[in-house]
Amino acid sequence: MDRSLYVAMTGATQMMREQSEVAHNLANADTVGFKAQLSAFQPLPVQGPGMPTRINGVAQGLGVDMREGGQVETGRDLDVAVQGQGWIAVQGADGSEGYTRAGELRLTPDGLLTDSRGNLVLGDGGPISIPQSTQMNIGADGTVSVVPMGQSPETIAAVGRIKLVNPGAGRLALGSDGLMHLSDGGTADADPAVTLKSGVLESSNVNPSQTLVQMIQLSRQYELQIRSIHSADENAQSASRLLQMT
């Protein structure tokens, strides 16, 4: 394959990869607690015969943007937002412990506390189970309190405490389940310094207008790579015809 054609095809492939990540961020601009994925083009040497100065621009993930999203008042008792740094511990579908900032909590028919994706919210002793009650609130330290069914408001009792952690951004990595996990596969200790605010949700930290502009720029660059492929192909065909004439 002609080298210029190979470089153009590689560039187009990497543009498509980068554009898919940007599109993923844009699609989640309204997702509660979503953290934008970061990526950039990194220069990597081209392997094989040829000048050692040849490089390809390869799109590589750089991790997750840990900046906090804005907070939106909802007034819903089961909506919570982490204040400052920290994460809510949940149990992923595979049983492993993961961490999320999406505080749109729910109750299953069996009384188990989950996040909006159905992951069980973890407490000090495992998943938190809520008995039938007429009132429920979540304190700043993650303590879940309820007024049992048929009881007066004065009988409010704590039934569990949400596990809140803050292992540090450098120890976290985004898993395929959309949750953050410790890079070494372990679990983080509860951090009493992490606090919640009830009746509030943290929005996505994606900037829609900036991300849309980035997507348009990538689209134009992709079109440029496609034109380069056509030009390289035409040049290769012209060279082949000249060789046949000699």
UniProtKB/TrEMBL annotation:
Its main location: other. InterPro entries: Flag_bb_rod_N, Flagellar_FlgE/F/G, Flg_bb/hook_C_dom, FlgE/F/G-like, FlgF, LlgE_F_G-like_D1. It comes from the Bacteria. Keywords: Bacterial flagellum, Cell projection, Cilium, Flagellum. Residues 198-242 form the Flagellar basal-body/hook protein C-terminal domain. It is found in: Bacterial flagellum basal body. Residues 5-35 form the Flagellar basal body rod protein N-terminal domain. Residues 81-146 form the Flagellar hook protein FlgE/F/G-like D1 domain. The keyword tRNA processing does not apply. Belongs to the flagella basal body rod proteins family. This is Flagellar basal-body rod protein FlgF. The gene is flgF.
